[in-house]
């Protein structure tokens, strides 16, 4: 039997032998087992691939959900930023509008303040051109006012209060106290500039009042003297100045702009007078305070036991001695009993009394 011939386990009678059937079954079993193993392997691979696909699908779904959340958050953030930007823009526009209104208001207030400053400056210039008037202190009887060069000396004299002064064979007792003066601390005056009146000051002394007013009216009624028709002239007795009233409104300003004028009062000489704007005012608020002179002391209880001049000298000698608590005396004014005197305070720096 050659190798090319098919091998057959068929018996001579044409039937398969049991050995052949068993071998065939074994081969079929092996074949099925191989097929089964291959199917198991394929199933395992398919299961693994399915699980991997499911895992990838789950991961992709998670990433998609996360991306969707991120996109939604970014969209919300962008929308919020847009809304915030709109709100900030609206607030900025409102602030700009408010600042514009404030600027216009401040500019209007500044113009008003400038006008008030011009008015106050004009009033200050007019007030500074007014004649000066000294403050007068009304003394009482049996007193003396003594001014020291050093404030500390005056304060020491006031602090001791009672002073014994030897005058020859006798001794007098005096009481020292501060000089208290009511002073305005705040004054509000409503003033108005009169366009038809002028104030005339620096008038010459020794001229009769009626003649003085007549000469003023004659001089300032002439156009060549920058004047005009005079409606009236009067004296201010408390200050010794005069007031001229003109018919026309424009005359007064021309005269006060020049300020100083030479006037002939009929004695052959010309006197220089000062013309100032006439202010009419009304005090709307007045607040006062008590001030004490820092260097001047009031001495009371001085008996008239000797000549006033000698007594004043004795007082000055006593209070100049350091042993008596005194010091250098700048001025002293003695007012005897049953007399009245006026003391004028100049260039003093009063300290506010407690």
Automatic annotation (TrEMBL):
Residues 144-231, 242-331 form the NID domain. GO terms for cellular component: nucleus. It comes from the Eukaryota. The keyword Ion transport does not apply. Residues 50-123 form a coiled coil. Signal peptide: none annotated. Keywords: Coiled coil. InterPro entries: Nmi/IFP35_dom (IPR009909), Nucleotide-bd_a/b_plait_sf (IPR012677). The keyword Metal-binding does not apply. PANTHER family: INTERFERON-INDUCED 35 KDA PROTEIN, INTERFERON-INDUCED PROTEIN 35/NMI N-MYC/STAT INTERACTING PROTEIN. This is NID domain-containing protein.
């Amino acid at each position: 039997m050659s190798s090319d011939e098919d091998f057959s386990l068929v018996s001579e009678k044409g039937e398969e032998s049991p050995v052949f059937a068993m071998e065939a079954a074994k081969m079929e079993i092996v074949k099925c087992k191989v097929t089964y193993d291959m199917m198991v392997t394929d199933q395992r691979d398919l299961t693994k691939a399915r699980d991997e696909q499911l895992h990838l699908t789950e991961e992709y779904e998670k990433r998609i959900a996360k991306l969707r959340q991120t996109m939604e958050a970014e969209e919300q953030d962008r929308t919020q930023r847009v809304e915030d930007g709109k709100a900030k823009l609206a607030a900025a526009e409102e602030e700009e509008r408010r600042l514009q209104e404030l600027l216009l208001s401040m500019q209007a207030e500044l113009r008003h303040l400038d006008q008030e400053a011009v008015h106050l400056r004009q009033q200050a210039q007019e007030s500074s051109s007014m004649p000066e008037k000294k403050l007068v202190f009304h003394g009482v009887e049996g007193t003396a006012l003594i001014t020291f060069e050093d404030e500390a000396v005056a304060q020491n004299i006031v602090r001791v209060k009672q002073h014994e002064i030897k005058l020859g064979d006798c001794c007098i007792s005096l009481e020292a106290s501060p000089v208290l003066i009511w002073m305005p601390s705040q004054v509000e005056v409503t003033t108005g500039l009169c366009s038809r009146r002028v104030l005339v000051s620096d008038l010459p002394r020794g001229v009769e009042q009626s003649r003085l007013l007549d000469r003023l009216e004659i001089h300032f009624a002439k156009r060549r003297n920058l004047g005009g028709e005079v409606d009236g002239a009067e004296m201010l007795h408390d200050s010794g100045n005069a007031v001229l009233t003109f018919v026309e409104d424009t005359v007064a300003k021309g005269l006060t702009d020049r300020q100083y004028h030479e006037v002939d009062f009929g004695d052959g000489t010309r006197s220089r007078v000062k013309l100032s704007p006439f202010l009419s005012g009304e005090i709307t608020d007045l607040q006062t305070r008590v001030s004490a002179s820092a260097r001047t002391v009031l001495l009371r209880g001085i008996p008239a036991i000797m000549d006033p001049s000698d007594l004043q000298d004795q007082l000055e000698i006593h209070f100049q001695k350091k042993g008596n608590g005194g010091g250098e005396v700048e001025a002293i004014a003695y007012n005897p009993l049953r007399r009245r005197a006026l003391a004028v305070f100049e260039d003093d720096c009063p300290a506010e009394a407690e």
